[in-house]
């Protein structure tokens, strides 16, 4: 499933989600399917995962958010989908807002980040709740 997210295989992921794949499935580094899809630039897969309940604010083990990763990589369509899906630009280390400054993108995104529906709404997920594992039928 992680490769499907990295490769943007929407069909495989959609079928798996309809067959009870946890939308916040997390790998050994704390990366969710959504984090991987976002980082590799697959806005359509990011949207699909959010529509199926994936948390756009789930941080990985390095406390990075999908939105900050998308800013780092300059993935405009992914940034748009994440903001529409409730991503909080203030959340994570560094936050997406801090990434805007680091990568000199304030002019491009500052206003949208200011008015983002999810701004200031992310809540920390307890460590033991951050790891969702795939049911046996999805392993292999």
How is this fold's topology laid out?
Elements: H1 2-7, H2 10-18, H3 33-39, H4 43-51, H5 66-73, H6 76-84, H7 96-102, H8 106-114
Helix pairs in contact: 2-4, 3-4, 3-5, 4-6, 5-6, 5-7
Can you describe what's shown?
- Keywords: ANK repeat, Repeat.
- The chain has 140 residues and is mainly α.
- The chain has one domain: Alpha Horseshoe (Serine Threonine Protein Phosphatase 5, Tetratricopeptide repeat).
- It has eight helices and no strands.
- Helix 5 runs parallel beside helix 7.
- The longest helix is centred in the first third of the chain and has 9 residues, at 10-18.
CATH class: Mainly Alpha
| Mean pLDDT across every amino acid position | 90
SS class? mainly alpha
CATH topology: Serine Threonine Protein Phosphatase 5, Tetratricopeptide repeat
Biggest sheet features = none
CATH structural architecture: Alpha Horseshoe
Strand content: under 5%
Rg: 14 Å
**Span between N and C termini?**
9 Å
Instruction: Give, in order, the helices and strands.
Output: HHHHHHHH
Which blocks of ≥5 consecutive residues have pLDDT under 50? Answer: none
Shape: globular
Total DSSP E strands: 0
Query: Total helix count?
Result: 8
Percent in helix: 40-55%
CATH H-tier superfamily: Ankyrin repeat-containing domain
Protein name: Ankyrin
Region (Disordered): 114-140
Biased composition (Basic and acidic residues): 130-140
Pfam families: Ank_2
């Amino acid at each position: 499933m992680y490769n499907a997210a990295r490769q943007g295989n929407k069909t495989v992921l959609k079928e798996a989600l309809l067959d009870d794949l946890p939308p916040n499935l997390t790998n050994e580094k704390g990366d969710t399917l959504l984090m991987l899809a976002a980082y590799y630039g697959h806005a359509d897969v990011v949207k699909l995962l959010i529509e199926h309940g994936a948390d756009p604010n789930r941080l990985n083990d390095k406390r990075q958010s999908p939105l900050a990763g998308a800013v780092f990589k300059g993935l405009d369509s992914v940034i748009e989908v994440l903001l529409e899906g409730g991503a909080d630009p203030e959340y994570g280390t560094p936050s997406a807002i801090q990434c805007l400054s680091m990568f000199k993108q304030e002019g491009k995104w500052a206003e949208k980040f200011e008015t983002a529906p999810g701004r200031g709404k992310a809540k920390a997920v307890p460590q033991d709740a951050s790891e969702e594992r795939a049911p046996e039928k999805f392993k292999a």
